[in-house]
């Protein structure tokens, strides 16, 4: 990393300094914000911001920006939908999309948007239920009680989603109640060339010149949903020094993990992940050279792999920095000394770190089996994933809710069913390539004599088996609808509705394979959940409680893909001895264009260059504390108005999984002015403009000169 983090911010226990923290809405430090910035968010302000924020179930953030269900997020967050709606004859990734009328707004095949309506503290309830328990009994009881609370919260309403959320590694638990929108339609998306201008070379860098934005709309009962709470668009441009808030869903941070857990990530998990992703990137890059259609159908996969590679490299570099890691070790040792010095605390918490270390050692032993037998690394196929879900659904759904595997709980069923029955296209050529790659890696990692490898491959090669499985499956029968490919999912629906009898009678090769392998996967999962996961959860809870006793409760929890609010300001930084200015201008977009990917601008931008105001702010950076999952988050001002759209962090922020340094960690956002300027002068998106700024598209009336 280019800078080390401040030790006080690394502990994951001491009160946050500077602009650090991804804070829950029920524990936001409003007084601290007032102390630094002179503005104190009220409860009413926080409630409005919470209800105006949104979550894309696939792993991104968003916001409501009109009273008629209009939602703003990143282009890269909606890429799956845009690609699924495209075809060889109408490529919306390459050419963009704009619905000129409401009737042209097109439903995304598999997308869900959530709005957080209520937060309830359930810590006492869960602690009481699991008191004195450990191992399997602890894990089963915790799972059952969580499911019970979730089911009672949703009360069987398919429009409600309730999730029991673990915070502070088990120090606290909250119940999050969401309003669920499953009819999501595409309204406007720019071309990929400007939404990811600079491509992988500029990814996690600044200065930037991207228009990474897409507009969606949520519908209810076939009509645009009425959204009483939404962020209005600011009339004032964000400038250097302005206070900023980011409301979004950071996916995961590891600031509160023990040294044993961090060592596992540094020495085992991340290096293996990097090797595998690097090989996958090379394979997909070669696949793209087969032709334009192969490139089109694999672009989304390549984007995800390259993004993951760069992010993982940044995190690994942070953990490999000896001084940085030494500070983490020192912080843990300091906490443990304080616990050891207090007989009562020592009795309650003293053994927790050693128990977690033992569980991590066990994790090293079972990692390969967990990854390839249960988690699907070797069977990296959309069709196999569907088959496995269908097989497990037939087993799990007849059980009582609390006895099911967590992914089949009542709270997850609407989303699970929507995914299973999604008509999103699955392209055989790409599917065979991915599956063959996974099977090859499985054989390499587990060894050709491993019983599971023999069971899967038999006498077939990875290439031959992948081709036979994909070509023989009826779980996605591609058909052409209005120039786009969609899956006929009637076979899936019959299997889902038919339950165990239909699954047992199925001749589909993917279903047959999933049936044959199900017991193997369940056995590995059982071992992991009882001997690793349950041990870590129970003892992480004890570590968290020790931190509360030593440092107090005025701290933020690690990210969990739940709604958080961070605060900061528009501010540049120093890199290699030079100041990086916080705001770029639209003119810079054209100055950096080379005409070749990834610096090639789309024709719409080249054609309208002269009509644009080159001084318009394009992208900007802030000191807000964010992480992956915050993509698509709104940047708002003290009036809870939109001033930008988060789409990235700078390269220094990649180590933000483990700590925060305000001097260099930066959030990267599209400026609200750039969005308005491009909608107006490049895309002619008057419907969207009118919703964002009512009255802005009306032509002013020229007064008639009085007679005489």
Automatic annotation (TrEMBL):
Domain of life of the organism encoding this protein: Bacteria
One GO term (biological process): peptide catabolic process
The entry's keywords: Aminopeptidase, Hydrolase, Protease, Serine protease, Signal
GO MF annotation: an example: dipeptidyl-peptidase activity
UniProt keyword Aminoacyl-tRNA synthetase, yes or no: no
Signal sequence range: 1-18
EC number: 3.4.14.-
Family: Belongs to the peptidase S46 family.
Task of the protein: Catalyzes the removal of dipeptides from the N-terminus of oligopeptides.
Protein name: Dipeptidyl-peptidase
């Amino acid at each position: 990393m280019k800078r080390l983090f401040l030790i006080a911010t690394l502990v994951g226990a001491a009160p946050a300094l500077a602009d650090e923290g991804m804070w829950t809405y029920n524990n936001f430090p409003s007084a601290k914000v007032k102390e630094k910035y002179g503005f104190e968010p009220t409860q009413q302000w926080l409630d409005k911001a919470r209800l105006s924020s949104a979550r894309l179930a696939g792993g991104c953030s968003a916001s409501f920006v009109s009273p008629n269900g209009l939602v703003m997020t990143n282009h890269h967050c909606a890429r799956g939908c845009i690609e699924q709606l495209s075809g060889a004859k109408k490529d919306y990734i390459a050419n963009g999309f704009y619905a000129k009328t409401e009737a042209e707004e097109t439903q995304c095949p598999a997308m869900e948007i959530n709005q957080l309506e209520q937060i309830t503290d359930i810590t006492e309830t869960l602690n009481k239920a699991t008191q004195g328990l450990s191992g399997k009994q602890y894990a089963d009881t915790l799972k059952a009680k969580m499911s019970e609370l979730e089911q009672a919260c949703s009360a069987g309403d398919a429009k409600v989603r309730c999730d029991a959320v673990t915070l502070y590694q088990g120090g606290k638990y909250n119940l999050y109640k969401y309003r669920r929108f499953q009819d999501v339609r595409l309204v406007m998306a720019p071309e990929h060339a400007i939404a990811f201008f600079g491509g992988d070379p500029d990814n996690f860098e600044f200065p930037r010149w991207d228009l990474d934005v897409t507009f969606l709309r949520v519908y209810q009962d076939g009509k645009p949903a009425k959204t009483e709470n939404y962020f209005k668009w600011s009339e004032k441009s964000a400038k250097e020094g302005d206070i900023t808030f980011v409301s979004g869903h950071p996916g995961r941070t590891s600031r509160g993990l023990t040294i044993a857990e961090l060592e596992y990530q540094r020495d085992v998990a991340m290096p293996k992940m990097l090797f595998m992703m690097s090989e996958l990137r090379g394979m997909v890059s070669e696949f793209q050279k087969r032709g334009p259609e192969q490139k089109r159908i694999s672009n989304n996969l390549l984007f995800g792999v390259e993004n993951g590679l760069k992010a993982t490299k940044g995190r690994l570099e942070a953990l490999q920095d000896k001084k940085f890691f030494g500070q983490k070790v020192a912080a843990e040792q300091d906490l443990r000394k304080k616990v050891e010095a207090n007989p009562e605390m020592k009795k309650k918490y003293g053994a927790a770190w050693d128990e977690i270390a033992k569980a991590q050692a066990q994790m090293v032993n079972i990692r390969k089996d967990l990854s390839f037998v249960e988690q699907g690394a070797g069977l990296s196929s959309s069709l196999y994933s569907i088959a496995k879900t269908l097989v497990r659904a037939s087993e799990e759904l007849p059980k009582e809710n609390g006895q099911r595997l967590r992914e089949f709980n009542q709270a997850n069923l609407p989303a699970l069913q929507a995914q299973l029955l999604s008509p999103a296209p699955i392209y055989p050529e790409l599917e065979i390539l991915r599956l063959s790659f996974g099977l090859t890696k499985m054989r390499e990692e587990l060894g050709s004599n491993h019983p599971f490898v023999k069971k899967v491959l038999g006498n077939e090669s990875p290439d031959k088996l992948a081709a036979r499985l994909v070509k023989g499956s009826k779980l996605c029968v591609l058909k052409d609808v209005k120039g786009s490919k969609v899956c006929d999912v009637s076979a899936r629906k019959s299997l889902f509705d038919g339950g165990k009898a239909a699954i047992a009678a199925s001749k589909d090769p993917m279903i047959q394979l999933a049936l044959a392998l199900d017991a193997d996967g369940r056995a590995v999962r059982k071992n992991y959940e009882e001997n690793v996961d349950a041990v870590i959860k129970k003892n992480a809870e004890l570590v968290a409680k020790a931190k509360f006793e030593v440092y107090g409760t005025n701290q933020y929890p690690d990210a969990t893909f739940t709604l958080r609010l961070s605060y900061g300001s528009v501010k540049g930084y120093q890199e290699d001895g030079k100041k990086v200015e916080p705001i770029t201008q639209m003119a810079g977009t054209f100055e950096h264009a080379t005409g070749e990917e990834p610096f090639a601008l789309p024709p719409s931008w080249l054609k309208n260059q002269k009509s644009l105001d080159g001084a318009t702010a394009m992208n900007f950076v802030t000191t807000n504390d964010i992480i992956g999952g915050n993509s698509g988050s709104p940047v708002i001002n003290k009036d809870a108005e939109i001033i930008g759209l988060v789409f990235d962090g700078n390269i220094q922020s990649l180590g933000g999984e483990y700590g925060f340094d305000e001097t260099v960690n930066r959030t990267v956002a599209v400026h609200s002015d750039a969005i308005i300027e491009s909608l107006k002068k490049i895309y002619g998106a008057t419907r969207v403009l009118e919703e964002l700024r009512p009255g802005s598209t009306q032509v002013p009336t020229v007064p008639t000169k009085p007679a005489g």
